Amino acid sequence: MSNQIPAKRERIIGRFDGAEGGPLLIAIGAMHGNEPAGVLAVEQLLEMLAFERINRPDFMYRGRFVGVIGNRQAYAKKRRFIQEDLNRSLSPDRVAALKAEGELQDEELEAYELTQTIRAEISNYQPSHVVVLDLHTTTADGGVFSIVDDSPGARAIALDLRAPVILGMLDGISGTSLHYFTTANLGVSTVSLVFESGQHDDPLSVDRAVSALVKTMRSIGSVHPRDVEGRHDDILKASTEGLPYLVRFALSHSITVEDKFIMRPGYRNFDPIKKDEHLADDANGEVLSPKDGLIVMPLYQKQGDDGFFIVDEL
Ligand SMILES: [Zn+2]
After folding, report:
1. Does residue 175 come out as left (phi exceeding 0), alpha (psi in the -120 to 50 range) or beta?
2. Structural domains in the chain?
């Protein structure tokens, strides 16, 4: 592994092949270009795996691990996206209609290349099942949690990460990685989850993403529990003290640039909010909370399609 970071990165960050067959674990970093933690975590993990293989003869990996960059163009520019949010552009119908590679631009090109790359990895390896871990960070503090569809497989992996798990989010948004990387759409047994590892530029966000990857490898049987250090459990536990265990999506506050949405300062992920609480301001005046609940992903950056989400504790 080279430590140099070229101006424009290859889509594939790297691969690690186990001596035994097993699941294909695909980690996506920088689905949003201003979120480098996932890419850095994949690089660290690839180095850790290579080190284990050389220094520990009894280290065993089952399956294959592949790390990919989500939005290459936005990552090169350190922006969330170029024209539109890649993680809202992945609805299966829309991606299937993207054909003329030479004429595609911006996020359409990214969506096409990313999905083609992952499909090629699957067809090369022919795994019995696929696990997609999409690594993100947030602008607000307290943002260590996972988002899953309601499948038992994804929920089990997410609960083992010991960070809050958000269910039902797929009803509130569309075109995300969780909508695209499904068994029905890929034709192979697939489990997908999103892991949010903290604030964009917090170095701990990289450590937490590494720990989430290692714990996922343990959950899916790619590494033996004896080979997983306790610090990976500790680092996630320490970051989620006092946060709820399981929550369900209630509503999202969608915005456009014309709304001139400005979140009021100080909100952290999973802060309790009350109905009619003054959460933000926009072109029409005050934005009040429609209900009691917990706030998630309050928007403190310029680019974004959602001002905030509200979830209910289960
Ligand atoms: Zn993100």
Report:
1. left
2. 12-239 (3.40.630.10), 248-313 (2.40.50.100)
